[in-house]
Amino acid sequence: MPARTGAQYLAGLRERPRDLWLGGQRVTDPVEHPAFRNVVRSIAALYDMQHDPSARDAMTYRSPTTGDPVGLSFLTPRTHDDLVRVRTMMKRWADYSGGFMGRTPDYLNRALVGYASAAAYCAENDPRFGDNIRRYYEHVREHDLCLTHTLINPQANRAVGPAQQADPYLAARIADEDGQGLVLRGARMLATLPTADEILVFPSTLLRAGPDDAPYAYAVALPTDTPGLRFLCRESFDYGKSHLDHPLGSRFEEMDAVVVFDHVRVPWERVFLLRDVERCNKAFAVTGAVAHMAHQVVTKNVAKTEFILGVASLIVDAIAIESFQHIHEKIAEIIVNLETMRAFLRTSEVDAQVNRWGVMQPAWPPLDAARNVYTRMYPRMVEILQQLGASGLMAIPAEQDVRGPQAEAIRTYYQAARADAAGRIKLFRLAWDIAISAFGSRQALYERYFFGDPVRMAGAMVNAYDRRPYMERVRAFLERAEAAGPEHTPGPTG
Ligand SMILES: Cc1cc2nc3c(=O)[nH]c(=O)nc-3n(C[C@H](O)[C@H](O)[C@H](O)COP(=O)(O)OP(=O)(O)OC[C@H]3O[C@@H](n4cnc5c(N)ncnc54)[C@H](O)[C@@H]3O)c2cc1C
User: Fold this and answer.
1) Quick one: which of 304, 248, 314, 302 has its CA closest to 98?
2) How remote is the CA of residue 453 from the centroid of ligand 1, in Å?
3) pTM, full prediction
């Protein structure tokens, strides 16, 4: 099957009902359920872009196995131009939601590109695993599947690893192994977008497992309708309101779920790494997967920052606060964030090099810098929107009020210098959904954490970054200063 349409994605969700729980009830049909119906249509719209005659050529490439058009985010880059092509495609998808969807399928497609290109890495764990990851990547590409992933163990006791928790089956653990494959029992937290077709249950990009953690060290992939696999969702932030009342939440609420493995069978062909703690610890970095994913993430950051700059600028214009100096400072801060993200992204492409697997890998240091700093930039931009909008973010009557008996009063008292009441309410509703609503708060938490704990991301950066040349330079400078400095001539009092 070549690049899918949205209708094919929705039909797949109906054909393969997963064990999805929300509010004490099983969700039998996410395509029609109020908590999921909007987001699955947003994902469907992304797939439809692949068939839009004006975008098709920029969204797809010819499958190396069938010659059919397949999604461009599956492309294994060999040149700098390939990276630009993939990024341009990913930007289109990111722009669709203003960057407010984290699990657009390209995110994990890029991870798979990295893993499959480094199949030899998996083969060193077990020769079968190399073929498995290559075939799995082709399967996902040729069926244009939508993936989610779950990397971390439940947050019960962070002072110890998974093997030392109160219950050894709290964190999903290999409970059995036979000729057919593995059996997993326990849980993982968290998976965004439980309406994906498949889930990658992979090692963390960041958390280092110890030798006792071998039963928790693996990389496997499963269809989300696999028997025993269960998704326990949080409350939905799509409150069933109109697009006017809830412009982002009513479209892009992806949902997050804890993933329970109740004796889940994993066939051998879906196992890519197993019980090799050291290899699992290094997998995302060595395969290049984390760099390919971060290339997508920073593309999304650019789209999101552009969108926020647009919203902030429209607020400034609407209520005529453009002449105040501190407003310039705040808008300039968003512009600096945007240009910083763009610069990191471009540098990652320009400095990309062919890695040991023969793949053009975006340069990691600028992407690492971007992922570290965006955890602070994003919450700050939310704060700026609050500072620009002030009480205007509360003067946002619902659509029913705008059309109801108070319509006349609303037309009068909600007008802005450069917008009528309807236009102003629409704009401030959007700013509210970024900066105040449950959807917006979750976005801030997402940007802080989804790519890992910022504290440990900083630790990983410090440990990996080669600072020795700069230490040497400063040492040399200190020595030079001593050798060549003018002799100290004591003054009259010295
Ligand atoms: C909205 C959202 C969506 C997400 N979606 C996904 C997803 O789709 N798939 C997925 O796999 N993950 C997802 N995540 C999870 C993400 O990977 C984690 O949030 C991240 O790795 C941090 O882990 P944690 O949340 O368990 O925090 P914890 O590790 O429990 O940390 C809690 C606090 O304790 C501190 N702490 C804990 N241990 C240490 C330590 N050893 N050293 C220093 N400080 C420590 C942390 O700094 C933090 O302040 C998502 C997270 C969010 C918020």
Assistant:
1) 304
2) 5
3) 0.96
